[in-house]
Amino acid sequence: KVSERIWGKYSSRIRFYSGNTLSMHCFAAHHMGLSLPGAQKNITWEVQRYDGWYNNLQHHSRGSVGSRLLRLLPANYADGVYQALQEPHVPNARQLSNAVARGPSGLPSKRNTTVLAVFFGFHVLSDILGTEKPGCPAEFLNIHIPEGDSVFDPAGTGDIVLPFQRIHWAMETGQSPNSPREQTNEVTGWLDGSSIYGPSHSWSDALRNFSNGQLASGPGGQIPRETDGKVPMWKALDPSTGQGGSHGIYDLGNAWGNENRFLQAVSIAWFRYHNYLAVELAKDHPSWSDEDIFQHTRKRVIATFQRIVLYEWLPALLGTPVQTYTGYQQHLDPSPSPEFVAAARIFLASMVPPGVYRRDSSCHLQNVSSSSDPFPAVRLCNSYWSRESTGMQQEDVDDLLLGMSSQIAEQEDNIVVEDLQDYWYGPLKYSRTDYVASWLQRSRDLGLPTYNQARERFGLEPLQDWTNLAPHSQQKVLEVAALYANNTDRLELLPGGMLEGDSLLFSAIILDQFVRLRDGDRFWFENTKNGLFTAEEVKEIHNTTFRDVLAAVTYSQWAELQSNVFVWSTGDPCPQPQQLTTQFLANCTPMTVLDYFEGSGAGFGIIIVVLCCLPLVSLFVAWIIAVLRERDFKKLQKKKASVRREVTGEAVHGEVAFLILCWCLVMLLKSGHITK
User: Fold this and answer.
1) Closest listed residue to residue 199, CA positions, set 252, 250, 135
2) Structural domains of the chain, count
3) Of the chain's two ends, which shows fewer C-beta atoms within 10 Å, N or C?
4) Which residues are bridge partners to 379 per DSSP?
5) CA distance 389 to 405
């Protein structure tokens, strides 16, 4: 009864955060000061859930797995409901990609942003965005390749179509103009380390070894385990070799963490950092349980991640500082917007280099071996879903992390390297596809607003004259203008934002998103009212940089890294020998068309023969059944006739006997032997 009274008093204020149900009696015992066996006495704060639920106590599902994206502007669909804009209302995606993004590689970042900042950025996006899940039922916005395309249709057949599937949406939307289609986010919409620990409690459990609070590792302890299927890691084919399977695919918090070796290296760095802090905590607190160590470590890793993203990485990426934190804003919706989904991806893609240097702590570059000559860097286009990382060693990851920290990224402009534009890994039938064209189609799938509508939303002047769009690249502007019939109001968000010389629109969209993520997060590390950290601990977290993280988890010493590993400045250690261009690198493996019949001819042949024979077999069986039934019917008819004759004979005999009996009685009456 005491438990019930306490539960009734406080149940409306209870929120479950660890993914484990807190029973009524455990709750009552906690408030009565009772000690329960197995209770975690060293976890004194509200543990944040893995799936994003109950971060906001008024809107419980906000930012949770499966929640909707937040539109900043009305949806721009052809029918106002769900149908994506297509030709001829908008240009062909591949043609527009060539007009906007085609150009030479080798132009360095204007702000000397490093390649590490670029792939760290993709890791950050994986923490707050999961928009890759295809919709069901399947809908396609296939990309028609112009005839004679030098990469995808060199033979000039004119019949090449790259498949492109629309992503998952909330099924209750897209029914009317008042409720247009809204897409969903398959990971949490918070900066909560879901890219490290996974977006669910079960995912996190599958990553743990439940010993000393650590994440499970493979041989050597510095690399995660190769996946065994318990964690739903994506395992696409390597477009360079055609290899598939689980080899070289590691269990990470991000399902797409093995997409390329550079994103994989950043993910492994955070995996190591968790285990590094767990070891330190275990030394300082030998009496703590595995759960105590794990939750304390997770809390500190998430806080460090938040600090690095907002106050180190974001200013380096945008070239502008982030305003000071003023406290938690409960009524602010921090959900990711579809405008951010597309703008952030394309902005980072423009900075991706064609290859990545590998170096050791002594600034010696590591050549990449090949079947012919060695090359100075790892080629991006030949690193998608690579299975060559099977048996990867600590040095392999360290060399990539150090190389990326010293290498300057591509310029923040409209040009995208061919490794993405022509040789991005392809879906279904084709091993390659166009990254830019795919995201142009994705923007139409998302129903993004036009370029001018987005500029007005962020307080920027709308474009009136095409010559004001990109004074540095007038020829490209003229090509794009022709594709939009010289109408600036028809210009779409992505091509317009890419052509801007100062990237004002993309920067505004990205900054708005991360500020909302910070200010609307109840578990933000600077919010001292949530009970996570003291003011002194917050100060310690503010003093932790990604340089400190790398120094802790690689063989490099602290002094061998520049103070800000997201920017390289003159005088920093280990300068790159030159800005990488494609001419110094291995050639990209060309596109192949997957033949699903190859190696299965006999099996498919047998199936086809069986299918062709099935109607004949069915007719034969039906004929046999009909013959048997006809024979049975005839037998039945004969049997009925025989029975009828027997019945008729018996009836006749009965009538005769009756007549004879009646005659005998009459005769007896007449003779007087029987009286009435």
Assistant:
1) 252
2) 2
3) C
4) 355
5) 21
* Residues of the domain holding 26: 2-32
How far apart CA 373 and CA 370 sit, in angstroms, is 6
Residue with tokens 């790259």: 162
Closest CA to 435 of 540, 342, 518, 508: 342
Pick from 135, 241, 243: which is nearest to 186 by CA?
Answer: 135
Examine the fold and report which residue of 584, 605, 638 is the final residue of a domain before the chain moves on.
584
Joined tokens for residue 210: 């439940």
Instruction: List Cβ neighbours of 440 (8 Å cut-off, separation of 6 or more).
Output: 93, 96, 97, 492, 494, 495
**Residue 415 belongs to a domain with what CATH number?**
1.10.640.10
Using an 8 Å Cβ cutoff, are 407 and 576 in contact?
Answer: yes
Q: Cβ distance 293 to 209 under 8 Å?
A: no
Q: Which tokens is 437 given?
A: 């064209």
Q: Which residue type sits at 114? A: T
Whole-angstrom Cα distance, residue 120 to residue 55? 25
Return the DSSP state at 50.
S
Q: Count of CB atoms within 10 A of residue 486's CB?
A: 11
Tokens of 482: 């022709």
For residues 248 and 349, give the distance between their C-alpha atoms in angstroms, rounded to a whole number: 24
Q: What gap in Å lies between CA 224 and CA 266, rounded to an integer?
A: 12
Q: Shortest CA distance to 158 belongs to which of 141, 167, 168, 145?
A: 145
Tell me which residue has tokens 């505004």: 508
Is 52 a member of any domain? no
H helix or E strand, kind and range, residue 525: none
Q: What is the mean pLDDT of each run of 10 residues along the chain (676 residues)?
A: 39 38 38 42 93 98 98 98 97 98 94 98 98 95 96 95 97 96 98 98 98 95 94 94 92 97 98 98 97 98 99 98 97 98 98 97 88 88 86 89 98 97 92 98 98 98 94 90 97 98 96 99 97 97 98 93 96 95 94 78 83 90 90 84 68 70 77 61
Name which of 190, 194, 139, 188 is nearest 168 in CA terms. 139
17 and 111 inside one domain: no
The whole-angstrom separation of Cα 567 and Cα 408 is 8
Is the domain of 449 the same as that of 571? Answer: yes
Q: Which among 380, 411, 114, 367 has a CA at the least distance from the CA of 264?
A: 380
Confirm whether 619 is domain-assigned. Answer: no
